[in-house]
Amino acid sequence: MVANFSSNNDHHEAYLCHPATELVTFTPSRPMVRRPPIMMIGRKRRGMHTVFGILVGLLVGFLVTSRAGVGFISALWGNKTCPASDSKSWPVPPGQPQYDRIYQEEQDPLAVVGLTDSSETIHNSKRRLVFVGVMTAEKYLSTRAVAVFETWGREIPGRIAFFSSEVSTVPANRTDLPLVPLKGVDDSYPPQKKSFLMLRYMWENYGDKFEWFLRADDDVYVRPDKLEKLLRSVDSRKPQFIGQAGRGNQEEFGLLSLEYDENFCMGGPGVIMSRETLSRVAPHIKYCLKNLYTTHEDVELGRCVQKFAGIPCTWSYEMQTILYHNSSGNDAFTGSLKQKEVHRAITLHPVKHYEHMYRVHNYMKSLKIQDLQQKVIYLHREIMSMMKELGHKPEEINNFMVGKNFPLFSAKKGSHDYLGDTAMLGIEPGLNKFLPSTEEEVLKWDFISRSLFSDTNSNPRRRLETPLKEGLDDVVREVMDMINMYSKQRGRVIEYRDILYGYHRLNPLYGADYILDMLLVYKKYRGRKMTVPVRRHVYLQQQFGDLEIREVLDGEEVSMPLAETEGEMAMEDFPDAQNGFQNSFKDVFENGLLKIGESFPLILGSRMSKKTPSIKDKLINFILPLAGRLETFKRFISVFEEVCLKNDEKVSLIIVLFPNDKENSINETVSIMRRLQKEYPKVRLTVVPVFDTFARAMALEVGASQCADEDLLFFVDVDMVFTSSALHRIRTNTIRGKQVYFPIVYSEFDPSIVYNESGLLSSPNHFLINRDTGYWRQYGFGIASLYKSDLKRVGGFDTSIRGWGKEDVDLFDKFVAAAKNLTVFRAADPNLVHVFHIVECDPNLDEAQLRMCKGTRADTYGGVYQLAQYIYSHKEVLEFAKKRMKQEPPS
Known about the structure:
By secondary structure, this protein is an alpha/beta fold. It contains 27 helices and 36 strands. 27% of the residues are buried.
């Protein structure tokens, strides 16, 4: 049978054949029109029409089902007959796009979503709780749909499928995407037809296989664990229509044809229906599509559910936080995710940029890891408590036997399955975990108010640093969650307002301690309602977890080589490594700093592969600007030879040499380099002369020009001393095209102040790091490690900058501005030390440079404690300061 549809000048043909031919029927797209009212027919004429309709129906049925009828139709309409059932050449009406019809007809709805195990039911499988239908479009299949499938879609306690237009095919970058192209559906907006037909498809193919059905968009993030917890607490045998209730915005009020008691579930954050609800609605999808009052798909779905299931969307204020919609539009969830709304929500909408779907997923994973780590600590505390009850000492836990040949901890330290040091992690929380044995070991508290006050910092009063602010936010959020855990049962809620003051300290062994005075608001909403401001003191401790180390190369984790023999070799086969791993947790730290390097053994397997990539293979090109300062240069060369050349480190040295008016040492400098070249002929040692006034920006730019784009550059000063561990960090923290490294170096104080000996010109131990010998140069950016290609990407140095300083800050700002493409990594390096020398500031420098120079010179005199002692012992300095203040009062 052939039916002709005409609309203006467009002509479409729809072919209707016997079911055995499996021919696809094409429904032409037509604009939706309002139907005229049906005219009333008289009772007598109504009977005649009924009889006539029955006769016509019998005739049509005979023509369709009999061969004679088919022949009659063929003769009537010419050669426009249906193809054979085994034919793959399908007739395509004019104007219809080509698509894979065989894929649409032959795909098994159960196989698409992996329902191949017939023994799996809703009663014995966690994967039969919820079916998720994600509405998407052909243009978003390779981006948003793939992002959903690769993140939360894999962890759903059920199955997921993506519903798109009939011309859609699986994307090339994810051929296993469970895609359902809906017949007769395009990607036009609003997607009313797509939404309703998706629900009908879900009921017809999966209605008896799941308890719940979630209708979702491709820009929503779902937390599967929280979704499962919610759904298992609700009876799916009853009609349920769960979502964020809405009645339209202010502009739409009265225009959505909603009764006073009607609402709808907003589609963006997700809509959840029980099986009972979907069973009542699905048979009437056709009616709902024919009776649309608005262009809003979620409004019409709510109207349909109200009419045929008899229930509205959940009237609950809590749904605004459970199914969370961010009204920021395209900027939603692109900033910080450390927000209570993000932590409380089950769904987050909208995630418009599909790249951020992975970002949100990683953040949720980190929260889950934190929860698991906290559970691990609780278990260690339980074990510790029981051991004490049984009369055993904490140090016996690792070797404790529960029964004969049945140890409490089967995996020992150093093993992949090691469960942690209970003697360390099992201690109950408290502010007295660490008991100092001397006055120097006493942990000092920092005072928190609007500012941060500390006597151990060179800036005693300063703003709260970002890590501390984030730590406080985490602590406050967790405290409020604990306080309000049973708020519903108690009919009250307590809201956080502010931290009036507090104290903070960091214990490198156990964690961070807090004492906070918090301003809260107590709200009672059951019984006698009341709102009262209250203050509470809280004593908190953020426990450190166990130490985990992984090896990376250029930002990618180095996989552990597999053993060539079956099974893993025991740790006893590596006695040296075993001794290293048996060190206690405390031994991993020294002066509060993590020791990573040659002292920490790492066993990768029973036999190391010779082709395993090594971080030591990366060549470091030292670029050193120099003008005079021969004695300092000799010290630098001595360190360079001892650390790099004698240890066969892969390095090169490029010296950009300028003349110096005060010191004519060019010939001696060149002679030193020639000697080194003779002794180490395989190492590239270069001297590039520049006959101009010294300018560090120009010197580094000239040095970089001697290298290729793929070379690793290390900008260094002649005053620096370093160890091989510093080279390891340079190679590790510098990743081409991804990350540049600006280490925070340790800068020495004046030795005459530190050691109270005026004749001492240099520190006897450059790597002695404490509050008295020097300070961390947090605002110094002159020492940097990067690839030349990344230097070129940001435009290189500003060679117009002359004199002391400023060129490093300018380069650092360029990399920060390019943060979307390059990460700027900063970290304190105890093996990069700036040796003290008197900073000479040229009075002819411009104002900004002169101010920076004088500030650096003042910082290098000594620490707060030494300077205070010096002033108290030199009364003339104090008198001079008092007179100066009277003459020049502060502005």
